[in-house]
Structures are given as C-alpha cells and as structure tokens.
Amino acid sequence: MVEPKGLGWERQWAQGVRDLGEMVKSAVRRLMLLVVLLPSAAHSWDRHRVLTEAALASEPGLDRMVKAETLQQYLTAIGKGTEKDFLTEQKLNKNTEFRFEAGENAGSTISIRNILIRYADEPDWALDQDLFSQYPELWKDDYLYMGGSQGYQSRAFRHLYFPQGYFRAPEPPSREPVPVDAPLGEAPDRARIFFEQSREAFAQGHPYWGARFLAWALHYLEDMTMPFHTVQLPSLDFVRLKPDGSLDLEATTRLVIYTHLAYDGYPGRALEGEVGPEAERRMRTALGAAAPSAWNGPKELSADAALRAAGLAPKAGAAALAFFPPMTPADAADPLGRVYNPAFWAEVRSRQTADPAGQAAFLEHLEKAIRPAGANIRAFTAAGLHPGAAGMDLEATVDRIFSETEKILKEIGAQNQTRRESSGP
Prior knowledge:
- By secondary structure, the chain is an all-alpha fold.
- It contains 15 helices and 4 strands.
- The longest helix is centred in the N-terminal third of the chain and has 30 residues, at 8-37.
- The strands form 2 sheets. A two-stranded antiparallel sheet has the order 1-2. Strands 3-4 form a two-stranded antiparallel sheet.
- The protein has helices spanning 8-37, 48-55, 71-78, 83-90, 112-119, 187-203, 207-223, 249-271, 277-289, 298-323, 329-333, 335-339, 342-354, 356-385, 394-423; strands at 65-67, 109-111, 166-168, 178-180.
C-alpha cells in the first residue's frame, strides 16, 4: 500500500512523541530512584533555642523560678530507678549524660522560660544518635530512606516524618519505585512521649524536669514545621542533569542537602541579627504574631504541623533555590562546611542588599512556615503549663464523664425495668 503523500512527517512526529514519552518515563523512573536513594538531612531548624525564645517572648507565666535538680534526684524522688533505667525505657543513647547547660546547678533556681529556651536544642545533642546498635528492635528497613543506621544521620528517623507517604526502592525485576501510602518517622510520637513525661513531672511537684521535658517535646514539634523534614524530595526543581541529559544523582543529592542546610539556618541567624534588620524584624513578627494553634493533643498537633509543612515544601524549595547563593563545585564537595561558614551568611546578606525584591520574595515563603511554628510552640507550651487554658480543663472533663456515666446507668436501669415488667410476676 502506498502511503498517502504528506503523512510521512506525521508518522515521524508520532514516533518522536512515543520516543519522548519513553524518555520522560525513564527520567521519572530515575528521579524516583533518586528519591528513594536520597536520605534526608537530619538537620531541622538550626538554633531551636532562638526560635523558641522568639515564639514565647510575650507569653506570660514563664518567668517563675524553679529549683534545679539532677535527673537522678528527680527519678529517685518519684521512685523510677536510675538514669540508666530512664535511658533504656525511653530508648535514648545509653552514653547520654544530662548536664546543666543553662548556668544552673543542683539546688539553684532558674526560670521556666530559660529552661524551655536552652533545652529546646537538647534532642540534637546525640540523644537519638546511633540507637540501632543499642536497640536493634527499633530498626526498620525503610529508615534507610531517612538517613541510615549509623552516625549523625542515624538520628533522622526521630526528627523526620513523611505524613503523605514515601517511595521504596524498586523490587527487581521492576524498575518502578514502590509507593507506600503510610507515614514514616517517629517525630510526632516523640513529641507526645516527652509531653507526657513533662506533665507527669509537673504533677509530681518537679517543675524543673517538667519544663526540661517540655523543651524536648517542643523540639520535635518544631522539627515538624520545617518543610524539608516532611518530604523525601521538596520538588523537581532540585533535579540536575548531566550534559547528555541523564540524571546527575550526585549533584542532585548535594543540592538538596546544601539548600536544606541553608533554609534551616536562615531563621535562627536572622533572629540573632546576622542577616540584617529586615530579616530579623520579619522573623520575630512571624513567630510572635499568630494566635496559639487549636490544641488537639501533642502527637496530633505535631502530625498536623508536618502535613502543613509538606504542603509548603515545593514552593519553599523553589524559593530557597532562587534566593541562596548558587551551589558551586566547592560547595557541593562540603555543603555543611559551606553553610556553617560565616562567609556564606555574609554573602547572603550582600545578595539581600543587592536584590531586596528577591529577599522579600523568599521571606514571604519562609514566613508561611515560621508563622504556624510560632503558633504551635505557644499552643504546646500552654497545654504543658496551663491545661485549662489549652482546652484541657480537667475538672470539666471529669464532670462530663460523671454526667455521661450517670446517663448511661439511668438508661440501663430503665431497660431492666422494662424487661421486668414485660416478663410479668
């Protein structure tokens, strides 16, 4: 059969479309493989203490002075054994030592505010590091996608949470990554655990450890407000290709880490005046302006925060890529060293001065993450220190339980009476 004149180019075009489709599918497969091979950086908001201080700056009742005590003194007083027992029960690094780091000592006094501020960073002091050799039962194979089993990144499973699910590596012979429609990570649970530890300590008359445990709970909550901590890959904007068009896995991985670290570090440095007065003003306003979030429980509030942060991740990632200095080969070789070097932040400040519109655009996106972080911190603190103020009026709850119980008993009594009357004498 003779092909009608003029259709040759259409057939070639159609074949080109099919070829392009296969190329796209292949690229997507490689990208998703990248996603499952790319462990997330364990860094969350840098300088938790600074964020906590700004979020609680106007909160009343935090300047009450309490007597400091060692963890062992507290545990002995409530009959809970030794520090070693505590570490094992909570599955924390067994080499942890609980020192005084806020200028206090056993028997001296310190304000609740200062405890919350200083010890909001404590969960990053290796509490959750290298746990899988000490508690093998904690390991899940999928934690490989969060940071692995050894070293600094091994803490990530307790500081990350993927609320919308994640991807596993392909199962041979398939080349398609396997989607998992379930959350991954322990951060909301850790917030709950130490919130409950805090409530117990306060109830037992030990406010120092009540506040210190509450600071730990705040840390995990704050982690959940950080977009890079709630997704495997923020957006496709991070994908880098080789000259031949193939995926550059190494460059993509390092770009994600570099940008993650810079995004983490900006709010804390802004609050300490390191990147200019405009950034400091806007970060303080964002952290302190919003009303406390509606309280629905420590785990629930943390999980809700993670879901919100995950929704912000694509635009937050794109905004960070546009704002921070482009990653150079030297930056890629050591992203941590680059971002933690004061010269990096001096360059950021220079870029802001040269491009105020670019700074404003970035801050607009960052405020969307920071504003709910402040609201959540205040809600958590209110619930820990003032249950009634956080919608947890215990007396009203008990009254309601008794009322409902009485109603149920009356209904049961009425049903029994009906049965007796129907059965006759």
